[in-house]
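> call design_seq(struct)
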């Protein structure tokens, strides 16, 4: 008896809280939008825009729009958050489907909903509303910006009920500045921002300090210097450290919007004050921005003393401020780009110190950007100061090795031939010493680029060729796949050296005759990569016959891969689709007993314009 009651109770709960799937989307929304079960309302609101599209414009206006007030005031924050995220796609649909009538719904219904949820008591809802409002603002026509956007923000800025309204206004004045345009920003917004910068609430002042960059760019350099910079400078001296910290974090955005003269005469002084602030949090924020700040000072005279403030950060790990070294490493390439190779000696010691920093994140940051530094300083400095860094990184932990390998070919293209040979061989040692397949995968993908930097007759080229063959037999599929393109690139590069080419070619073509079918599949994929490299002579003379033979392979999976190569790189390729051997292969496979192979062999799949992207896509 108890079991019967229990089952009946479960049936009641299921019927009470399940949604009737026999109803169409609009009918479900109408029936369940006031459900006591919040999960039902969540499901409905996630599908709001799709429901509107299903219903069509007229029915959306008649039945769906009137229900939306319920979701604005929903008791569940998750429902309000998803609702506000749906407002922009819904508005975009209404404007497209209803034209002027839909646009009026945006102005008079949906925008007010977004503004209302801006000051929601739930932080996540307010944040979502801010993002939504920025997107919806793009849909507003220029003639309606003042009435429907700017005036509402000004109203929020003057609302004394709670500081949240004015905080949101301070952010929107900056976020929507590009939409407001120069004239409205100069005549109306600047005065409002100035008032908010003097607000009694430090949270409002902090928000102003953090949100001036867009406004400065919109009003133009001259006005930004006259009107915005004084506001910023005053906030940098605010009594509350949180306001000063927000200003420090916004230093770069303000710098980008003002003149070079104002930058060097005023902002440098502002930075120095912030970097010596009584609050450690303010000092840290200032130093975090220093490298990027210097990067905004292109074509300006950066004094040796100011540059030294930056390079001194490299030595801070020894004094306990470990974050400073990380900031220095992160911005190092940007600063070198500004000061140039002629001033390398001023930053050389800092670079050498960062190389040996105890924090691996510092070394990793430099490893990823070594090629960018080399590109600025040129061959001589790169060989003297940067190649030792590469050697250290290649002997470092895997995360650091990975960083330097990612752009190794760009770095080595800047140094001389002797250095290239040495470091190509060092990189080729990495997979042999590592059990980390991701590291082997990174090297496998780079070998084809690296071999092109050395002579085909060199020891380095021989080392790379041997490693490519070894990685084709790696235990991890991804590593083998990454080796296909490198194999084709190695073949193409060795062509000018007969002995080395024939030796490597024999290993590659040998794959097509191996007993295990995976090797035969690999050969087909290598041919595909050679086609993508446009190595036509190589394919025609040394690879195509073996590929055609694989069209008769006893294993259907091999024949399918050959058909796939046809569809991806030959049937759709003007240089190959009419070739007699390709046509013969396609005809033969179109009659294959395996239906998938037969269908694939006559398919013409889309080509990608970029050869490298095409190869990656087809791989």
């Amino acid at each position: 008896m108890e079991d019967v009651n229990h089952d009946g109770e479960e049936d009641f709960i299921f019927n009470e809280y399940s949604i009737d799937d026999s109803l169409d989307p609009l009918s479900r929304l109408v029936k369940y939008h006031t459900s006591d079960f919040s999960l039902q309302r969540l499901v409905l609101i996630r599908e709001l825009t799709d429901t509107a599209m299903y219903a069509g414009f007229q029915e959306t206006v008649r039945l769906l729009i009137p229900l939306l007030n319920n979701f604005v005031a929903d008791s569940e924050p998750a429902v309000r958050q998803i609702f506000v995220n749906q407002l922009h796609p819904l508005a975009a649909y209404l404007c497209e489907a209803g034209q002027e009538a839909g646009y009026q719904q945006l102005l008079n219904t949906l925008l007010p909903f977004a503004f209302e949820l801006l000051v929601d008591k739930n932080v996540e809802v307010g944040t979502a509303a801010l993002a939504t409002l920025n997107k919806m603002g793009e849909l507003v026509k220029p003639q309606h910006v003042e009435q429907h956007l700017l005036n509402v923000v000004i109203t929020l800025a003057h609302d004394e009920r709670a500081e949240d309204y004015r905080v949101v206004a301070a952010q929107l004045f900056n976020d929507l500045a590009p939409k407001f345009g120069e004239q409205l920003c100069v005549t109306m917004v600047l005065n409002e921002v100035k008032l908010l910068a003097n607000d009694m609430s430090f949270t409002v002042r902090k928000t102003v300090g953090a949100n001036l960059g867009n406004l400065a760019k919109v009003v133009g350099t001259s006005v930004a210097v006259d009107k915005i910079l004084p506001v910023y400078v005053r906030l940098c001296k605010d009594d509350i450290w949180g306001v000063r910290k927000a200003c420090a974090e916004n230093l770069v955005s303000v710098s980008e919007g003002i003149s070079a003269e104002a930058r060097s005469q005023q902002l440098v002084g502002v930075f120095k004050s912030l970097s010596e602030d009584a609050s450690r949090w303010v000092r840290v924020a200032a130093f975090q921005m220093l490298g990027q700040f210097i990067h905004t000072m292109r074509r300006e005279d950066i004094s040796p003393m100011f540059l030294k403030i930056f390079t001194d950060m490299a030595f801070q790990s020894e004094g306990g401020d470990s974050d400073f070294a990380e900031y220095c490493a992160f911005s190092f390439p940007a600063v070198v780009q500004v000061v140039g190779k002629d001033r390398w000696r001023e930053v050389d010691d800092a670079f050498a110190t960062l190389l040996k920093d105890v924090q691996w994140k510092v070394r990793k940051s430099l490893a990823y950007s070594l090629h960018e530094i080399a590109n600025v300083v040129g061959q001589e400095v790169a060989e003297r100061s940067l190649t030792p860094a590469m050697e250290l990184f290649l002997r470092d932990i895997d995360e650091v090795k990975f960083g330097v390998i990612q752009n190794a070919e760009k770095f080595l293209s800047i140094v001389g031939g002797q250095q290239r040979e040495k470091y190509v061989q060092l990189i080729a040692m990495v997979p042999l010493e590592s059990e980390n397949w991701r590291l082997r995968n990174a090297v496998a993908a780079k070998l084809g680029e690296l071999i092109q930097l050395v002579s085909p007759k060199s020891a380095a080229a021989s080392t790379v060729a041997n490693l490519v063959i070894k990685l084709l037999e790696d235990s991890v599929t991804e590593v083998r796949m990454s080796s296909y393109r490198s194999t084709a690139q190695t073949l193409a590069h060795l062509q000018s050296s007969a002995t080395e080419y024939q030796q490597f070619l024999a290993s590659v073509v040998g794959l097509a005759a191996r007993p295990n079918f995976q090797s035969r599949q690999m050969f087909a994929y290598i041919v595909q990569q050679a086609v993508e490299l446009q190595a036509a002579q190589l394919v025609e003379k040394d690879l195509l016959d073996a590929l055609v033979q694989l069209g008769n392979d006893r294993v259907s999976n091999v024949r399918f891969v050959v058909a796939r190569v046809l569809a991806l790189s030959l049937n759709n390729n003007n240089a190959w689709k009419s070739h007699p051997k390709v046509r013969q292969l396609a005809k033969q496979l179109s009659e294959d007993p395996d239906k998938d192979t037969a269908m694939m062999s006559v398919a013409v799949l889309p080509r990608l314009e970029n050869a490298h992207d095409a190869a990656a896509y087809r791989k």
